[in-house]
């Protein structure tokens, strides 16, 4: 039996209605870089902004010592964060991607998406079922056809579900597909790569109006996502 945590049937992009036409008609994914999100100012700090974007590692200070010659200096508190200077140039695009496991784990009443999504815009573009596979196919082709973008990752992955970590408990390496768990409500699926000339990047994957539907954000999040038996 397939793990429900690996079955994804809902992919959502929340946005202002002014961006809907270009998203549907051109498949326009406007990708800012990590430096933008590190410096972005939100009323809610756990919305778009994230000062911890691009960390290479986050270590418990209590488990780290500073060594000066043969002398060790300890006694630090909190966390010790490391980042690569070049990571800030990485472009990212975020969507919500929800698994059957997420819905099951929410309980018998279903999964209610956070009201914080209202902060991303008044429209929600929904891609579901097999259309997710088609969206990912068009995305892969657009990336492969773009000569000015690349990924430095050894595994070649450019799109992946974000893994959420405890800020207090995590002690180890991180990458662009890791975030701290104050953002876990976003169910983020992230597209990420670099380009030869740093800055924002407008990736166009082509018309997706035939595989997507548009909803009002407030209406969509007011109703639970549930798994129900298919009618015969």
Comma- or semicolon-separated keywords:
232 residues; alpha+beta; 16 strands; nine-stranded antiparallel β-sheet; three-stranded antiparallel β-sheet; single chain
Task: Explain the overall architecture.
This protein is α+β, with helices and mostly antiparallel strands. The chain has helices at 20-26, 34-39, 100-105, 130-145, 217-221; strands spanning 8-15, 28-33, 55-60, 66-68, 71-73, 79-83, 91-99, 123-128, 149-150, 159-161, 163-165, 172-173, 178-180, 188-195, 201-204, 213-216. Strands 1, 2, 7, 8, 9, 10, 14, 15 and 16 form a nine-stranded antiparallel beta sheet that branches. Strands 6-3-12 form a three-stranded antiparallel beta sheet, with no helix packed on it. A hairpin with a 2-residue loop joins strand 4 (66-68) and strand 5. The longest helix has 16 residues, at 130-145. The protein is globular and about 70 Å long. It starts with 7 loop residues before the first strand and ends in an 11-residue tail after the last helix.
| β-strand number | 16
Strand content: 25-35%
The average pLDDT is 89
- Regions with pLDDT < 50 over 5+ consecutive residues? none
Please describe the biggest sheet, giving its number of strands, its sense, and whether it closes into a barrel. 9 strands, antiparallel
**Assembly type of the shown chains?**
single chain
Q: Name the structural class.
A: alpha+beta
Shape: globular
Radius of gyration: 20 Å
State the helical fraction.
10-25%
What is the count of helical runs? 5
């Amino acid at each position: 039996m397939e793990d429900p945590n690996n079955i994804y049937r809902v992919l959502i992009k929340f946005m202002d209605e002014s961006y809907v036409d270009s998203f549907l008609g051109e498949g326009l994914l406007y990708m800012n870089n990590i430096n933008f999100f590190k410096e972005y100012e939100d009323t809610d700090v756990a919305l778009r902004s994230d000062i911890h974007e691009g960390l290479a590692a986050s270590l418990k200070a209590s488990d780290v010592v500073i060594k000066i010659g043969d002398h060790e200096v300890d006694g630090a508190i909190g966390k010790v964060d490391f980042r690569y200077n070049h990571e800030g140039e990485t472009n990212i695009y975020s969507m919500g991607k929800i698994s059957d496991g997420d819905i099951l784990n929410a309980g018998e009443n279903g999964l209610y998406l956070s009201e914080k999504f209202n902060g991303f815009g008044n429209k929600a573009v929904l891609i579901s079922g097999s259309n997710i596979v088609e969206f990912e196919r068009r995305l892969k082709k657009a990336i492969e056809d773009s000569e000015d973008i690349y990924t430095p990752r050894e595994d070649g992955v450019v799109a992946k579900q974000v893994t959420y970590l405890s800020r207090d408990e995590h002690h180890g390496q991180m990458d662009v597909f890791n975030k701290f768990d104050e953002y876990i409500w976003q169910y983020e699926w992230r597209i990420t790569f670099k380009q030869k000339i740093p800055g924002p990047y407008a990736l166009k994957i082509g018309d997706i109006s035939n595989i997507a539907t548009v909803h009002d954000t407030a209406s969509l999040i007011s109703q639970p996502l549930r798994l129900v038996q298919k009618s015969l």
